[in-house]
TrEMBL record:
InterPro entries, A to Z: CRR_secretory_protein, GNK2, GNK2_sf
CDD domains: Gnk2-like (cd23509)
Compartment(s): Secreted
Protein name: Gnk2-homologous domain-containing protein
Tagged with keyword Signal: yes
PROSITE patterns assigned to the protein according to its UniProt record, in alphabetical order: GNK2 (PS51473)
Signal sequence, renumbered to the chain: 1-29
Domain of life: Eukaryota
Record's keyword terms, sorted: Repeat, Secreted, Signal
Principal subcellular localization: secreted
Organism: Capsella rubella
Length: 258
């Protein structure tokens, strides 16, 4: 059975290229996807010259991340001096660390340069990671970015009692917030991630949420995402809110590694 995903047009200046097709299977044969979700080119940060110092610094960081073991699924690194300094943030999904993180990073880098050709900065999202490239190094911990966000909805509606379903879904998500907002240390790096499932009558709800490891106020970010669901996803069988600071997702089918 196939389910297409629709993308909310809340991310400014991002073209909607295609619907996402997700293959649904049983838990034992779950087909984990790493589909392209969205991107934004930060054109205001300018373009770089081929063979110039910015590109050389970017290549240094790309090699560094590619050779990193990505044990915590997170990297935030900078290299070079202004105006040619480069900053990279990579956050892989909580079930996609180490060897699962590398393929997502490789794909994200390749597609970023296709979609934002010559741009010094931008962001690209996939199912299992997001990548930010910029010439600016943000102050740490990073403040929550409420601007570069977007939502996606499963176009299928719940069969009945939509209001009750929405309430139970949000109640469950708030339960997960309490888990995700307290860090788990992985390889000396704090990670903010929670996932779970909950029986809702005859159906089962699956959900996950995550904050980037370097942001301030994870709980505030995740609770904001839950409120955003009301704008896109009431009565829907699935929904997502994604950004540069945190993200969440719920479905009526499993979509994570066990």
């Amino acid at each position: 059975m196939n389910s297409s995903y629709s993308l909310s047009k809340r991310l400014v200046n991002v073209p909607i290229l295609a619907m996402q097709l997700l293959l649904l299977r049983s838990v034992s044969s779950l087909n984990l996807t790493n589909e392209y979700l969205n991107h934004k080119c930060f054109v205001s940060e300018g373009k770089y010259k081929h063979g110039g110092m910015y590109e050389k610094n970017l290549n240094v960081l790309n090699r560094y991340v590619a050779e990193n073991d990505l044990a915590s699924g997170f990297v935030h690194v900078s290299h070079g001096e202004a105006p040619d300094s480069v900053n990279i943030i990579l956050q892989c999904r909580g079930d996609s660390f180490r060897s699962y993180c590398h393929p997502c990073y490789t794909t994200a880098v390749k597609e970023f340069h296709k979609r934002c050709q010559g741009d010094k900065a931008g962001i690209i999202w996939y199912d299992q990671c997001f990548l930010v490239i910029s010439k600016f190094k943000p102050q740490l911990p990073r403040k929550i970015d409420f601007k570069n966000t977007f939502s996606m909805q499963n176009p299928k509606n719940v069969n009945k009692e939509a209001r009750s379903f929405d309430k139970m879904t949000k109640d469950f998500l708030y339960e997960l917030v309490r888990k995700a907002s307290y860090p788990t240390v992985v390889e000396h790096q704090s990670t903010y991630y929670a996932a779970g499932e909950k029986k809702l009558g005859t159906t089962k709800l699956y959900a996950m949420m995550q904050c980037a490891s370097d942001i301030l106020q994870c709980k505030v970010c995740l609770e904001w995402c839950i409120r955003e669901l009301s704008k896109c996803c009431n009565g829907k069988q699935g929904g997502r809110v994604l950004g540069m600071s945190c993200n969440l997702r719920y479905e009526l089918y499993p979509f994570l590694r066990s």
